[in-house]
UniProtKB/TrEMBL annotation:
SUPFAM superfamilies in alphabetical order: (Trans)glycosidases, Glycosyl hydrolase domain
Provenance organism: Setaria italica
Ranges for domain Alpha galactosidase C-terminal: 320-396
Coiled coil regions, renumbered to chain: none
Name of the protein described by the UniProt record: Alpha-galactosidase
Amino acid sequence: MEAKALLCCAFFFLRLWTPAAAIRSGWSPEVVEKRATLQNGLGRTPQMGWNSWNHFACNINEQTIRQVADAMVNTGLAKLGYEYINIDDCWAAHDRDSQGNLVPNPSTFPSGMKALSDYVHGKGLKLGIYSDAGPETCSQQMPGSLGHEEQDAKTFASWGIDYLKYDNCNDQGLSPQPRFSSMNTALLNSGRNIFFSICEWGIDRPATWAGVGNSWRTAGDIKDEWGSMTSNADSNDVWAPFAGPGGWNDPDMLEVGNGGMTTEEYRSHFSIWALAKAPLLTGCDIRSMSKETMEILSNRNVIAVNQDALGVQGHKVQKDGDQEVWAGPLSGGRVAVVLWNRGPAEASITASWSSIGLRASAVVDAHDLWTDAVTSSVQGQLKATVGTHACKMYVLTPK
């Protein structure tokens, strides 16, 4: 296929009140025009993997990246779908070379990025890298790609890079849409399919134009705190109609295992991200994670909700103070439900069939995704007692 043909984007529509998506109660029953889908064949389900920033920030080197790739395989996470090993800011030298090329920092990545990508690919994984739509990255320790989009995209392709996180710092007062579109065009012309992750922080409504990317941030940087996580979940929820195969809303990377929240809070974090079809990019040190962290990140049932082929983002459908119900349709007529208690005390939460898109007469089997217990022949509503800052997550299968 010629490069120009790759630039075409297909516009399509999402009817909010079809049976499969009737779950989006509270939204106007109208046809919503979605963003164009990036035609690079990637992101048919939300991306899964690891990113260096949340735990390591700028303290990265090639040995750490190799060890993380080893751990991704040795822990079994790779077999569950965690495939991207993404290097964030601070990997490059402060200045470009005499030809204007980005070069890895020789003190931290002495073997170069091609050797590192070969190592990661040899593990059956994919390597991601970072740049910025400004003259410098957010750390101001390395050059950004503004004005060098074609050159940098070809460099990334020559190194065997599979994923680009593209940040929005030092924007020179320029609109984000043309800056991110320029890198999209450059990646499509690079000769390699590279997943394009737009990190615009949701400021300029990227869900409405980010068909130039495979995912787009809908909120500011997450912190390893309950309030930050819940805020990002709410900001992301606004844009639910715009997500789907090929392009996903991104409330930022996972903080599970970094130590700032309780196990129940991390379980809620992972559950809501999975239901919302958010990228599952873990940000902890997987080389030394706890048993509890591993149990959360490796829950096959929850991952299956995130990776469901229907690709419809779950949505907050019911709220009573601090008690919430989030739900979304799955393939095969099933429904995923999260009963989420954001309050300071244990509470009873009830999800009615009408709020989650089931017929009043529906009889379902309710599979608790965290305990693996199944309750048969549930009718009319789903009710559970939920601890503080905790959740219950289910898949309901009509009989």
